[in-house]
Amino acid sequence: MNTLDALVRNAIGFDRLFALAETGKPTSYPPYNIEVLSEHDYLISMAIAGFKESEIDITVHQGKLTVTGNKADDNKERKFIHRGIAERSFTHTFELADHIEVKSAHFENGILNIGLVKEIPEAMQPKKIKINTMTSSKTIEQAE
């Protein structure tokens, strides 16, 4: 049994997410990592060498994080012996699970880091319910 099978079996209510993962077209440019930092914190790191900060746009809308890189045309005629740095425009969209919020974005040395946090509203967090005994309820009635 592989990890994905185990995850699918134990993740109830994520059918839409798994369907997207199976049918989605895999993108390899730009390369990226998704890292779990703690129970509620995640980090997406994208390698976007050759881009300036002004050429990158990050938006969040209706549960989708979209990172777009629009490479400015420098109009210089360049001759390459080997071209390994793509420097082409891109759009990459990440489906965010419920209650995942983007908390930061930082671009340094060709790596774009996007910090995510899972913020579950207090009304949806588990609550501990005190169990009253029969003697407790008699005490309350007598006190009134």
Instruction: Tell me the Rg in angstroms.
Output: 24 Å
What order do the helices and strands follow? HHEEEEEEEH
User: Taking all residues together, what is the mean pLDDT?
Assistant: 79
Helix-residue proportion: 10-25%
Largest sheet, strands/sense/barrel: 4 strands, antiparallel
Structural class: alpha+beta
Please mark out the parts with pLDDT under 50 across 5 or more consecutive residues, or reply none: none
Overall morphology: elongated
The share of residues in extended strands comes to: 25-35%
Strand numbers in spatial order across the main sheet: 1-2-7-6
Cα distance spanning the termini: 61 Å
Assembly annotation: single chain
Strand tally: 7
SSE layout and pairing:
Elements: H1 3-10, H2 15-23, E1 32-36, E2 41-47, E3 56-61, E4 64-69, E5 90-95, E6 100-108, E7 111-118, H3 134-143
Antiparallel strand pairs: 1-2, 2-7, 3-4, 4-5, 6-7
Commentary on this structure:
The chain is of the alpha+beta class and 144 residues long. 19% of the residues lie in helices and 33% in strands. It contains 3 helices and 7 strands; from the N terminus they run H-H-E-E-E-E-E-E-E-H. The chain has helices spanning 3-10, 15-23, 134-143; strands at 32-36, 41-47, 56-61, 64-69, 90-95, 100-108, 111-118. The strands form 2 sheets. The protein has a 4-stranded antiparallel beta sheet with strand order 1-2-7-6, with no helix packed on it. Strands 3-4-5 form a 3-stranded antiparallel beta sheet, with no helix packed on it.
